[in-house]
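Structure first, sequence second, as always.
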């Protein structure tokens, strides 16, 4: 397996962010910078090719890369963004990270790429305590399975992982890298610490 397979990394910013008061979460600021910028910086420093899944304020996101919205209606969550990525991008692999995870590992891409085996279809981060289901890479070849999964009304990513050859990547030494900020209180607390 090549060390850097043909991969586009997609920052998922297409959610409704109900717990953040319905704000467009990618544009919420932490220490003066929007989330999307912090995540974009962390990926670009690792050499990622980046695209953005957003359903609002698409023109604002365009400065960070090509933007596309969900194909499916009704905000089906992160899987909707993953489905949209596979509908819009031809890369063999699609990498995904949430827009509200500003402290991603500095060696995220390297470790994820290194974990890809010949028969792997999905590679997903594990922080030592739990799976980080939205920090993942998916082979484009699972698109039909994803399509069927969503058509059946399923929305839990971990159930999709059970249907595919999934490899878990150990990031237990960087447990705090996966803090995601969902509410104004969490944002305020994290801003004071960082």
């Amino acid at each position: 397996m090549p060390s850097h397979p043909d991969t586009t990394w997609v920052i998922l910013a297409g959610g409704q962010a109900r717990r953040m008061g319905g704000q467009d979460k990618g544009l919420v600021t932490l220490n003066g910078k929007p989330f999307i910028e912090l995540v974009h910086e962390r990926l670009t420093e690792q050499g990622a090719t980046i695209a953005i899944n957003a359903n609002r304020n698409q023109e604002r996101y365009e400065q960070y890369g090509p933007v596309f919205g969900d194909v499916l209606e009704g905000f089906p969550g992160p899987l909707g963004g993953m489905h949209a990525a596979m509908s819009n991008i031809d890369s063999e692999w699609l990498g995904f990270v949430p827009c509200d995870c500003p402290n991603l590992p500095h060696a995220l891409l390297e470790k994820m790429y290194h974990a890809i085996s010949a028969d792997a279809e999905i590679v997903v981060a594990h922080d030592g305590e739990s799976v980080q289901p939205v920090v993942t890479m998916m082979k484009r070849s699972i698109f039909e399975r994803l399509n069927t999964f969503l058509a059946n009304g399923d929305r839990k990513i971990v159930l999709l992982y059970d249907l595919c050859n999934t490899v878990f990547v150990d990031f237990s030494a960087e447990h705090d890298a996966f803090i995601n900020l969902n509410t104004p209180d969490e944002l305020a607390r994290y801003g004071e610490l960082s």
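Margin note: The beta strands are 7-13, 29-30, 33-34, 50-54, 67-68, 93-98, 122-126, 131-139, 166-170.
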